[in-house]
Amino acid sequence: MHHFINTIILVRDIPVSRDFYTRVMGLTVEREYDTVVFFRDHFVIHNAESLLSNAYASPQKPEAPLGRANLEIYFETDDLAASVARVRASGTKIVHDIVEQPWGQKVFRFLDPDGHLVEIGERMSQP
């Protein structure tokens, strides 16, 4: 049996991404090393070149751009308006303002420093 531990997002610049996810997104760092940062709630950023080189046991560079619109990083909040204001004030590229999804949830989307699509929605799950 396998047990899910975390999701790892590949990034180009750990300090830039760490700052974004702590300052703009409000995440809490649990532990960190030179090339990897573990946040609370099973979210991890890892330097792309370092992780790929380790995984393939030889020096590697990402072959394609990061953040290629092939995944979405999803968060929920109790205060969507405050989240929009914080993201907007940071100068982050907004993909779209608050819209209502077909199931009734309000969300907005933007890009992180590496171009990964990030969504913040009003809370749907139980705390």
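The record above closes out task 2.4. Task 2.5 opens with a second protein, given below.
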Amino acid sequence: MQNTRPLLLESDFPPVTRRQLQTLQVNLGYVCNMSCVHCHVNAGPHRTESMDLETIEQVLALLARENIGLLDLTGGAPELNPHFRYLVRQSRALGVRVIDRCNLTVLFEPGQEDLAEFLAEHQVEICASLPCYLEDNVEEQRGKGVYAESIRAIRLLNKLGYGREAGLRFNLVYNPVGAVLPPPQAGLQEDYRRELGKRFDIQFDELLTITNMPISRFGAVLLAQGQYLSYMQLLRDNFSQANLDTVMCRNLLSVDWQGYIYECYFNQMLDLPILASDKRRHISSLPSSRELEGSAIYTGEHCYGCAAGQGSSCGGALEH
């Protein structure tokens, strides 16, 4: 598979500095029951990388020490990590908000039959990927049969109160199919509400639009199809200075499955160490987050993906 990393390191992206740490985003491993075209981590059923219990305990220690308010769990399918439920229980006991980035179909995997009930019991916020409200578009990106399983999962979550009751927040995530920017978030959200409500009586709290980043599996597709340069030019042409004030890396740290720290999820996938250093720093040796405030963030060409158009982060569009 072709790699875009060497093409992304040299960049004139404007400087960005860190602010107060508010969110810890943790990748629990690359094991997944799906293999999506847009996946930034090349996750899939044949991957074996998974965070161990010792590192989970170090994550919990960091949450407590730094009084971090939000834990954002990613994968792969984070729920397939054997220590996922322990981490959720302990984090919630600390009073930390927990987001589960769920692919929906994992709810029906063997051994996960009570997963939806577990998430509801602990008031875990769910951020679920549904690339489109149309079946053909979803299956082009995620595989045959995924749309029906996703709708089934959403209806199950709605039945448990997700998207309907306070304390059970349920957001959907849209990624474009192909080398284009996502449309305006507010308008697309209304389309999702109308179509999913009319067809399936589905409810959700918010739709988040996320730009596909030119890295890992999606980056390889761009190179293979000869679209890399045109896509990067699209991101540059749509750069918005206003987005620099709210890009996620300013208030977030990203932890990989081995416990190494990065300044954002995408830098993690590109193995760009924190503070632009020449070696990775482990969660066990991280200084106080206050010492990191004001430091320069390691940026590259891929950062134009977060600052293009309405902007893009793990929380959706930056401009509304």
